[in-house]
């Protein structure tokens, strides 16, 4: 009887794979988005779909990556300071036109941190009241824009800097604020 129950457990596991198998909605947000953009850019640039060229394109894209996308690049080994090298787990399947969701599923099995990455919630600068935001959030806006606020000591300094830069980085929000 014991061997029969062991066999039925093995059969159940084979027929109904665990949650680690397929991605659910919202899983691997950064991985799927980054690799999707990369794949589309490879198609647009008519890159030769072989592992070597794709690996070069991944490394090049990762040089410009910021925030969570840079962290993703670090996890797959596409940054100069990465401790591991799993970039071939991306380049080889992409060369065979494997869907990015499937690539991310495989990466999730190798390193679960990859699928834990989520993009930060984006603020709608057209409607948000900057005065009600925390300084941390104001600094985050400037960081996303690749700007800094030298000499900013108070919240109003950060608000002034954001308002000054808004026409460059968020023109719709700047227009909406002048209409008020």
UniProtKB/TrEMBL annotation:
Alphabetical list of InterPro entries matching this protein: ARMET-like, ARMET_C, ARMET_N, SAP_dom_sf
Gene name of the record: manf
Pfam families for this protein: ARMET_C, ARMET_N
Name of protein: Mesencephalic astrocyte-derived neurotrophic factor
Domain ARMET C-terminal, first and last residues per copy: 127-169
Chain ranges of the ARMET N-terminal domain: 27-123
One record GO biological process: neuron projection development
Primary subcellular site in the record, as a coarse category: secreted
Keywords noted in UniProt: Disulfide bond, Secreted, Signal
Range of residues in the leader sequence: 1-22
Family that this chain belongs to: Belongs to the ARMET family.
One cellular-component annotation, GO: endoplasmic reticulum
Subcellular compartments: Secreted
SUPFAM superfamilies (UniProt xref): SAP domain
Gene3D superfamilies in the record: SAP domain, Saposin-like
């Amino acid at each position: 009887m014991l061997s029969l129950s062991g066999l039925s457990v093995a059969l159940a596991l084979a027929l109904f794979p665990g949650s680690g198998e397929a991605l659910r909605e919202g899983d691997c947000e950064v991985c799927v988005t980054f690799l999707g953009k990369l794949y589309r850019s490879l198609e647009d640039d008519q890159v030769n779909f072989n592992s070597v060229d794709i690996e070069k394109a991944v490394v090049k894209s990762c040089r410009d990556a910021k925030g969570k996308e840079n962290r993703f690049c670090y996890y797959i080994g596409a940054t100069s300071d990465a401790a591991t090298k799993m970039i071939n787990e991306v380049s080889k399947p992409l060369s065979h036109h494997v869907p990015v969701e499937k690539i991310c599923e495989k990466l999730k099995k190798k390193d679960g941190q990859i699928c834990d990455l989520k993009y930060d919630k984006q603020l709608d600068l057209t409607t948000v009241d900057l005065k009600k935001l925390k300084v941390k959030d104001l600094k985050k806006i400037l960081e996303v824009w690749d700007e800094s606020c030298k000499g900013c000591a108070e919240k109003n300094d950060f608000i002034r800097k954001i308002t000054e830069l808004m026409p460059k980085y968020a023109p719709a929000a700047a227009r909406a604020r002048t209409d008020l």
